[in-house]
Amino acid sequence: MDLNTIWFLLVGILIIGYAILDGFDLGVGSLYYLLGKTEEEKQVLLNSVGPFWDGNEVWLLTGGGALFAAFPQVYASVFSGFYLAMMVVLLGLIFRAAAIEFRNKVESETWKKRWDFLFFLGSFLPALLFGVAVGNVAKGLPLDSAYNYTGGFLALLNPYSLLLGCLGLAAFLMQGVTYTMLKTEGAVQERAKGLFTRIWIVFVAVYVISAVATYIVAPGLFANYAKMPALFLVPLLALAGIILGPLSTKAGRYGMAFLASSVTMAAMILTMALGMYPNWVPATDPNLSLTIYNASSSPLTLKIMLIIALLGVPVVLFYTTYVYRVFRGKVQAGRQGY
Amino acid sequence: MDAVFLSRLQFGLTAFFHFLFPPLSIGLATIIAVMEFLYWRTGKEVYDRMSRFWFKLFAIIFAVGVASGITMEFQFGTNWSEYSRFVGDIFGAPLAAEGVFAFFLESTFMGLLLFGRDRISKAMRFFASFFVALGSTLSAFWIIVANSWQQTPAGFQIEGGRAVLTDFFAAVFNPSTIPRYLHTVDASYITAAFFVIGISAWFLLRNKNVEVAKGSMKIALIFALFAVVAQGFLGDMHAKQVAVTQPAKLAAFEGMWENSANASLNLIGFPDPQKEETRFSIGVPGLLSWLVYGDTRAEITGLKAFTPEDRPPVLATYWSYRVMIFLFGWFVLLVLWGAYLFIKGRIYTDRRFLKTAYYSMLLPLAANEFGWFAAEIGRQPWIVNGLLKTGVAVSPLPAGEILLTILLFVVVYSGLLGALVYLIRREVKKAAVEEDMTATSAVSLSGTVPVQQ
């Protein structure tokens, strides 16, 4: 495996890590009004993500940095191309950060209501738009000879990309709802269980429609699978996660349900990535596609970055595990919710 | 208004806003770690109260720092795509390293402290605070590595129209990294120390929360004293480096037009870019040459050595630099005054000092921003010094879209700033009232009025 492929996978792992971890925060935020009815329940929900959201978001920042470092052409073309959409995501994440930290600082109904709304909006918008972005990339972008996107903002909101936006949103909601089942008890947990079934059904339906739509809109994504049928194990893994979800929920094994949802999320992203490889951004004119070779940094940079990752990541995983262990168990309402 | 101007305006605004917070966070995290250390080692309850109080303010500041920092990570791609393509082989790595080595550490242990403070031991509380401080200090390192490479690029060669890495350590430790890093981190200590001194002074003036205020004032004053003295040397070290590696910037700092042996250190004057002269200039002859090269007759390059289009905007650079220096002079005076009162045992009661300290509380934030203006405007017209001009580095975006996002950022950031100021004032006032309540309960229990000195 060459360095470019390794970095394609490593950036993919960062995106998957982000989708799994911040996925549950974004999911809880998007379901905030549906899961939390009373003040106490809302506090429980906020406290359940309180210690983690910031660390989880670092996966996105690191993923952005790694993409910049390893594939600067992709970083430049995609983020400038998706300018307004990207700004909406960023504003959403700003709202969410401020809302989680500020909401419980003042005992005032209006104060809390305002931050509640920003918490919801700041979770919902990114949860929806990440999928829209993936849809546009999968479909192929109109790039000019300088690799600049030429399509304009409204072209990003095409039916296929919106469909993938819904798929992404449903996957984030599954993360959020399974995490809530795991971390809460009582009425909130019951509500989460009820919601899980409905979200699961929607997810499966959108998943099937998306698969069919992808075959029509972006048949090129299936080429690698035709060449190497063993790759079908990855979508099968997603299927296993999809089946395991409701089974473990029914059995009251919520940790397993969260794991199943996370596996589905990971396998879904990996399915897309394997279909894209070695492209990062297929262009409407295939000669202009950004690949892991023409969009990458020099071998020296890729090598140094690999050393940085090998030195840093084990340490990160070590202390992250420690902190998650400190907060194991159910969440309570109140200022320090654990 | 073209895309270049608007993208510069947006980057300037968002970075200006963001840069209010990290220096304060870095310094406060360090001061809080010291308090946690004292609490762990001595077990004295007052250190716990001090740490808890400052941590509340820190958490609010940290949140806005995180919220406004998200934009920075992606703005190179969204608004500066040509720049990103040109520098990606070098500039991206420090940003990724910042994530791996700094942000994870900072945010993970911040979460632990925010929600798990009462679940962990005193020792672990110290270590968690220490890791938050370490994380934020390391984060400053990597971001200054990236920015310093823009100032004094090294360890690369140009291949196919972009900069390609040839030597990682030469790029990381480029000529300006270390001077700029030390200068900035030390500025962070000054910033936080003044903040702590100022709020403590507010308590002392009202005779509220006295124990916490006195303890905090003492620690912060020691911090400020060391940091201000160190900044004298570090600032000098940084200026020497600028003189050698970015002569146009130094010439703009000094408002110096002609090459000059026996160059004078400018105190004040009025640069006139049209006439290419600095009017009413007052300076100390030979001092600049001596400071840079240790020789009063050493030659220093003037602005006229550069063609007008390669000179930085002189007025903005000159005045930003000057305001920073004047503010620093004020910090030196204030800290020396504080140290004198401390030795005399009057620091907690001298109302004139306490008021002055209170009103000077936020001045280091201004000094930071002006220093940053001087550094960044002084680098113009280059986005990467000598290699790439700012004007060709932007994304090909419609001006209207950038204008729209600028307006959104202005609205959202104003809201954030409003919430931040409101919450900090609220916490400070609350601490004053809580102190009152403990004092009243002490009265009712013992039947005597507690003596306050």
TrEMBL record, chain A:
<keyword id="KW-0479">Metal-binding</keyword>
<feature type="transmembrane region" description="Helical">
    <location>
        <begin position="153"/>
        <end position="174"/>
    </location>
</feature>
<feature type="transmembrane region" description="Helical">
    <location>
        <begin position="230"/>
        <end position="247"/>
    </location>
</feature>
<keyword id="KW-0249">Electron transport</keyword>
<keyword id="KW-1133">Transmembrane helix</keyword>
<comment type="similarity">
    <text>Belongs to the cytochrome ubiquinol oxidase subunit 2 family.</text>
</comment>
<protein>
    <submittedName>
        <fullName>Cytochrome d ubiquinol oxidase, subunit II</fullName>
    </submittedName>
</protein>
<feature type="transmembrane region" description="Helical">
    <location>
        <begin position="195"/>
        <end position="218"/>
    </location>
</feature>
<dbReference type="GO" id="GO:0005886">
    <property type="term" value="C:plasma membrane"/>
</dbReference>
<feature type="transmembrane region" description="Helical">
    <location>
        <begin position="254"/>
        <end position="280"/>
    </location>
</feature>
<keyword id="KW-0813">Transport</keyword>
<dbReference type="GO" id="GO:0070069">
    <property type="term" value="C:cytochrome complex"/>
</dbReference>
<dbReference type="GO" id="GO:0019646">
    <property type="term" value="P:aerobic electron transport chain"/>
</dbReference>
<keyword id="KW-0812">Transmembrane</keyword>
<keyword id="KW-1003">Cell membrane</keyword>
<keyword id="KW-0472">Membrane</keyword>
<dbReference type="InterPro" id="IPR003317">
    <property type="entry name" value="Cyt-d_oxidase_su2"/>
</dbReference>
<dbReference type="GO" id="GO:0016682">
    <property type="term" value="F:oxidoreductase activity, acting on diphenols and related substances as donors, oxygen as acceptor"/>
</dbReference>
<keyword id="KW-0349">Heme</keyword>
<dbReference type="GO" id="GO:0009055">
    <property type="term" value="F:electron transfer activity"/>
</dbReference>
<dbReference type="Pfam" id="PF02322">
    <property type="entry name" value="Cyt_bd_oxida_II"/>
</dbReference>
<keyword id="KW-0408">Iron</keyword>
UniProtKB/TrEMBL annotation, chain B:
<keyword id="KW-0249">Electron transport</keyword>
<feature type="transmembrane region" description="Helical">
    <location>
        <begin position="90"/>
        <end position="114"/>
    </location>
</feature>
<keyword id="KW-0812">Transmembrane</keyword>
<dbReference type="GO" id="GO:0020037">
    <property type="term" value="F:heme binding"/>
</dbReference>
<comment type="similarity">
    <text>Belongs to the cytochrome ubiquinol oxidase subunit 1 family.</text>
</comment>
<dbReference type="GO" id="GO:0070069">
    <property type="term" value="C:cytochrome complex"/>
</dbReference>
<dbReference type="Pfam" id="PF01654">
    <property type="entry name" value="Cyt_bd_oxida_I"/>
</dbReference>
<dbReference type="GO" id="GO:0005886">
    <property type="term" value="C:plasma membrane"/>
</dbReference>
<keyword id="KW-0408">Iron</keyword>
<dbReference type="GO" id="GO:0046872">
    <property type="term" value="F:metal ion binding"/>
</dbReference>
<feature type="transmembrane region" description="Helical">
    <location>
        <begin position="53"/>
        <end position="70"/>
    </location>
</feature>
<feature type="transmembrane region" description="Helical">
    <location>
        <begin position="187"/>
        <end position="205"/>
    </location>
</feature>
<keyword id="KW-1003">Cell membrane</keyword>
<protein>
    <submittedName>
        <fullName>Cytochrome bd ubiquinol oxidase subunit I</fullName>
    </submittedName>
</protein>
<feature type="transmembrane region" description="Helical">
    <location>
        <begin position="20"/>
        <end position="41"/>
    </location>
</feature>
<feature type="transmembrane region" description="Helical">
    <location>
        <begin position="402"/>
        <end position="424"/>
    </location>
</feature>
<feature type="transmembrane region" description="Helical">
    <location>
        <begin position="126"/>
        <end position="145"/>
    </location>
</feature>
<feature type="transmembrane region" description="Helical">
    <location>
        <begin position="319"/>
        <end position="343"/>
    </location>
</feature>
<keyword id="KW-0813">Transport</keyword>
<dbReference type="GO" id="GO:0019646">
    <property type="term" value="P:aerobic electron transport chain"/>
</dbReference>
<dbReference type="GO" id="GO:0009055">
    <property type="term" value="F:electron transfer activity"/>
</dbReference>
<keyword id="KW-0479">Metal-binding</keyword>
